[in-house]
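Q: My labmate handed me this sequence with no annotations at all. I'd like to see what the chain might look like in three dimensions before we decide whether it's worth expressing. Could you predict it?
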Amino acid sequence: MSWLGLVAVGMTSAAGANSPPSPGTGHGTVLSSRQVRYQSLLACPTTLDQIGRIVVPVMVDGRGPFRFVVDTGAGHSTVSPRLVRALHLDVKHVPRIEVQGITGSAKIPAVRIQTLSAGSLTIRNLYAPVLRTPMMAGADGILGVAGLPKLTLLVNFEDNRVQIARYLEPGVRFDYSRVHTLTVAGGLMAIPAYVGNIRTLAIIDTGSERTLANQALRDALHVGIDSGRSEPVTIVYGATRQVEMGRMATSPAISVGPLRVLGAEMIFGELHIFKVWHLDKRPAVILGMDVLGTVTALGFDFRQHDLFVASARGQGNYRFRTRAIQANSKAAH
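A: Here is what I predict for the chain of 333 residues:
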């Protein structure tokens, strides 16, 4: 059984739902010059109108390179139907694989890949589920890096550079702020954090568009109680066909290691993946790219269980304000 952290959200009102988010590329989609520029980036930062993403070139069975989204919240790599067709991979004689997504579980057709390589990472004899999901936004696959203890990942948004290697560059350990992390659910990188004055466990998930919180944290924060106004209802889309409802609210200050995040829009809900990870009874939050993509650089040392953070000023301790994205009748990108 595999678990995938890829997630997107769509905005709606309490009265009704909208359609799933549209892919970033594909037939019938007209891209602006700015969107085309974002599609070409490897390390796309979060901006006012764009949720950041991390993409790496990946070789599949010696062919490529193909564009894969790096997902620290996924314990399994997946491929798109387009890549299956391009490589003529066999889906008929491979058993379905049960995957656990943000919103539900499903048995998904898979393909066998002899070698999948990116930087210093090589995975052999991989059975990769074939994901038919708009959240991939034109990418050829998802590179799940959770639970890979011999690797490091460096993401530099400022220099548009992503590096998968055995060891981090020496300057990262010297110049960045280090936060020692916990390992939960078999490989997830987690950090003790505070949301307001509530002690919380924060999961680092580069595959998630938005920051998600469980119902236990919502209850502890008393979100929506005696506020005099209802929170926008949000539809959460995961790697499987199930969708779940959440409520969006501006979070109190989020303190994670050296970071103090102000003004983050957090989505609260009884999401399936929190139950899978056994994190539904205690306050927990999944930090997505709406928060992670606002820093200058991130370094992941999965071997030593360390997260390194660089600020725009070259200092570890700083504040940044996430930009609220207004709820409306259109799906979020």
